[in-house]
Structures are given as C-alpha cells and as structure tokens.
Amino acid sequence: MCKIYITLILAYLNHISLYPCLLDYAHPWQISFQDPATPVMEGIIALHHDLMFVLAIIGTSVIWLLLRTTYLFYHKNNPVPSSITHGTTIEIVWTVTPSIILMVIAIPSFALLYSIDEVIDPAVTIKVIGHQWYWSYEYSDYSDVDGNCVNFDSYMVSDDDLQLGQVRLLDVDNRVVLPANTHVRALVTATDVLHSWAIPSLGIKMDACPGRLNQVSMFIKREGVFYGQCSEICGIQHGFMPIAIQAVSVEDYVKWIAVQAECNDWFTNKVKLLEQ
Ligand SMILES: [Cu+2]
C-alpha cells in the first residue's frame, strides 16, 4: 500500500517537473488553480484563499462542538444530562454570528463581482461565436467598407494531426491572437445551442446563448498561450471544442492583424503567419 502512495507522489512530482513550459492548461494531477494571467483571476484566487481561511475556522469550531457534545452526553461521562431546551442568549449568538460572517464575506465578494463586470474602454473587441462543435471568432474592429471583417473558425487539432509540443484535446488549428497588457472585450454568443467560453487562467467563463450577446472583458498581463474548453454541455462533441488564446505583444498583434486584414483566406493557419 505504502508503495502505491510513494509511486503516486513521485508521479505527481514528475508531472510538475515535466511541465515547466509557458502553456497555461491543467496538468495531470494538478491541485488548485492554474496560474492567473489577469487581475480578475488573481482576485478570484485571493478570495478563494481568504474564504478557505474562514471555512477552516468554522469547520474546526463545528467539529469541536459536535465532538464535545457527543462526549458530554455519553451516559458514562455524564449520567445526569442537562435538561435545558431553550436559551435566548445562545440562540441570538448562533443566529447573529453567522449573518455577520456572511456580511463580512459579501464585501470582497461583491467588489470582485462588480470588477469582473467592468468594461474599461476596450482597445480591441472580438466576437466569439459558439457552434456545434467549434468556435469562430470575428475581429470586427478591422472591417472594410463592405463590412467584411477578419474572421475565422477554430477547430480542435485531432489526435492524428497533433505535432510535437501541441496539447492533446486543447490545441486548435487557429488560435485567438490578442494583445497582452491591453483592455480587450469579448462579445460572446452562439448559433445553435448553449455553449460557454471558459478560460481558467484568465478567469473567464461566459455563457454563449443563441440570440443574445454576452460581454466579458479581459486584461491579459503576460504573453503566452492560454487554453480553455467549452463549459456548457452542448452535445456529443462538447469535449472537443477547445479554446486557445495566444497573447502577444502589442507590436506583434498589430503585425498579425495587418496580415489578417490583407488576407483573403482567413481559414489559413494564423499562428503560422504570426511566426513568419
Ligand atoms: Cu459547446
């Protein structure tokens, strides 16, 4: 038995050392959150850690109370139990104390919630459209006089086409390229059924509803590739419509979008164009 535990611990440590790269996705055996890349995700993680502190204190107190009452009401320890059935003071205490704790928790929670909702003068707006079963993206800031804008579909790379360094079930043929350190807005919708555009390291999980535009903002603090998945059960291939966002410097983004705007065939591989 001990051998199994040692093997599991070694496997976990091995996985940590195997994935020191900049790709942001869930690693095998990962515990807790992915590394945050936006202030919103940093806030979510900080709130989670604060709440875990409160949770630990409450959990410990309740378990202590339960064990102590169980012990004291054991007939051998306490042959004549207390016959008190009501106590105004204690009832006020155990009603008011939790409500004060909840009110204290609500303050940082609402502050975070409203800051997530805030859209600060975005420099770039993208439109995200969920389909059964892929995502498509539109960069409508750069449309021409005819209203044609940079747009492309983003399909998962199948197992057979995977290249070295690509992440199975997470990499796509066309990544969403976005500038880092820039306020970006995403308008999220769907064409057929409900989907959800979710990228854990960016702190984004936005429902994509047909006939409705949802808005989410992001400020990516570092360059890198951030992976996500559809998070609304949307059909047979729900697990095979991943999201890959490549955050690049503003200069690289401008170069990329210039190439895209000139490009008549937006279905070619955008990542390859970026590398050239
Ligand atoms: Cu979906």
Name the average pLDDT: 86
Main sheet specs: 6 strands, mixed
Number of helices, counting only DSSP H or I runs of 4 residues or more: 5
Helix/strand structural class: alpha/beta
**Annotated CATH homologous superfamily of the largest domain:** Cupredoxins -  blue copper proteins
Number of domains: 2
- H/E series, N to C? HEHHEEEEEEEEEEHH
Bulk shape: elongated
CATH class of the largest domain: Mainly Beta
Could you characterize what this model shows?
- The chain has 276 residues and is of the alpha/beta class.
- The protein folds into 2 domains: 39-117, Helix Hairpins (Orthogonal Bundle), CATH 1.10.287.90; 124-275, Cupredoxins -  blue copper proteins (Immunoglobulin-like, Sandwich), CATH 2.60.40.
- The chain has helices at 2-18, 39-72, 88-117, 250-262, 270-275, and strands at residues 23-24, 124-131, 134-139, 150-154, 176-179, 183-190, 195-199, 204-208, 214-219, 224-230, 243-248.
- Helix 2 runs antiparallel to helix 3 (88-117).
- It is elongated, with a radius of gyration of 25 Å.
- It binds copper (II) ion.
